[in-house]
Specification:
Layout lengths: L1 E5 L10 H16 L4 E6 L13 E5 L7 H19 L3 E4 L12 E5 L3 H4 L6 H17 L2 E4 L2 H11 L6 E3 L13 H11 L5 E5 L8 H15 L4 E5 L7 H9 L6 E5 L3 H9 L3 E4 L8 H9 L3 E4 L4 H5 L3 E4 L4 H13 L1 H14 L5 H23 L1
Parallel strand pairs: 1-2, 1-4, 2-3, 4-5, 5-6, 6-7, 8-9, 8-11, 9-10, 11-12, 12-13
Helix pairs in contact: 1-14, 7-8, 7-12, 10-13
């Protein structure tokens, strides 16, 4: 079998959710299926670290697809030509885009439909592109895979897609996430939080991530409790982050809030592993990878009671209304003052995390590839 994979998000040093999903699943597919040929499709020069085995060849397809006009060019003109020339049997696209013009059986991965629920938080041209093309992508693909049951049902409801062609996979975690010893925790606290315990947020600093309310809730927590616990925020400031800056500047506890910027690899694993709790109270998630990372780091969680987060978090965290500053603050007070509750949530996390792995995600993708091929063959008869 000849399997072409859209790998344009495999970018060294800039790997986030979609890139990590692409890397982990593509690597496992290649290792599992040494008898098959794989073509990795990049939109810019690539790093050889992503050529996982001898049965992989790579091709840079012009143009670099990082703008709505260029997305259209790449997927509707460049990709169909390459798939046809390479004689691909199937096209696997893990970043939410497919080619409408290509006839090759296609497996699409959708990570969320956030733009449908929060269109005002997406730049105009991107929003226009998504609203026009994403419904068509889901209709075009022979198989659609999402990363949570919530997202699967969201796709079916929003686009009227036949549920028989929608499958649910998941995300997994990277190796840096593991529990730390007491001495390791103390060293990380000394390096990042003046030797104090801290709540931790990791992710984009963006309105949908609700970081402004998290900061305001932390200020309420400090005022009510008198605790010396700090708040550390790791992530790039994205588009429309003014409300977060305002909340930070207005906080009376600004000295107890640390903006760390982007963290990755070992540093992220250490800072998360030393946290009193992960505070991830996003307004909407297709999965919420930091929740799973916290479970592997054996850190308790405060998260939201909306979208996919209850599904992923299970009983490993306190679930709150993300629009309620009071509810977030009260959950912080509970966890900060109750060691037995923190331990209970960690114990639950050890159980909950076993539901999600990269191997499970790859199982679903591999099955969907075969279903896509079978569906195309049946349609030809």
């Amino acid at each position: 079998m000849r399997i072409a994979i859209n790998t344009r998000f495999l970018i060294p040093g800039k790997m986030e959710g979609i890139g990590l999903f692409t890397q982990e699943v593509a690597k496992r597919l290649v290792e599992r299926r040494p008898q098959d040929k794989f073509l990795f499709l990049f939109d810019r020069p690539f790093d050889s670290e992503f050529i996982f085995a001898d049965n992989v060849e790579a091709k840079v397809v012009f143009p670099p697809a990082r703008h709505p006009f260029l997305w259209y060019w790449w997927f509707e003109w460049a990709i169909p030509r390459v798939l046809r020339q390479w004689k691909a049997d199937v096209f696997f696209s893990p970043d939410g885009y497919v080619s409408l013009r290509s006839k090759v059986p296609t497996v699409l991965v959708t990570h969320d439909l956030a733009f449908e629920h929060y269109p005002e938080q997406v730049p105009y041209l991107a929003s226009t592109y998504y609203r026009h093309f994403v419904p068509k992508f889901h209709s075009r693909a022979e198989q659609v895979v999402s990363v949570s049951e919530y997202t699967s049902q969201d796709i079916i409801r929003t686009y009227g897609i036949d549920s028989t062609k929608v499958a649910t996979a998941c995300n997994g975690v990277r190796t840096p996430f593991k529990p730390l010893s007491g001495n390791e925790i103390a060293a990380v606290q000394a390096q990042y939080a003046d030797g104090r315990p801290y709540f931790f947020y990791v992710g984009a600093v963006h309105p949908r991530k609700n970081v402004d309310r998290l900061i305001r809730a932390f200020s309420e927590f400090k005022k009510a409790s008198g605790s010396d616990t700090k708040l550390l925020i790791a992530g790039r400031f994205a588009w429309q982050s003014e409300s977060v800056r305002t909340a930070y500047e207005q906080s009376a506890y600004q000295n107890d809030i640390k903006l760390l910027g982007y963290l990755s690899g070992e540093a992220l694993g250490q800072v998360l592993g030393a946290a009193r709790a992960l505070t991830y109270v996003s307004l909407f998630e297709g999965f919420g990878v930091p929740l799973l990372e916290a479970m592997y780091a054996e850190v308790p969680i405060i998260s939201s009671n909306v979208s996919s987060m209850p599904e992923v978090c299970g009983t490993a965290g306190l679930l709150v209304d993300p629009t309620s500053i009071e509810a977030i603050s009260q959950a912080m007070q509970q966890l900060d003052s109750t060691p037995s509750l923190r331990q209970k949530l960690v114990d639950q996390g050890r159980i909950q995390r076993t539901k999600f792995s990269w191997d499970k995600a790859t199982d679903i993708i591999e099955e969907s590839i075969f279903r896509a091929l079978q569906g195309k063959l049946l349609n030809k008869k």
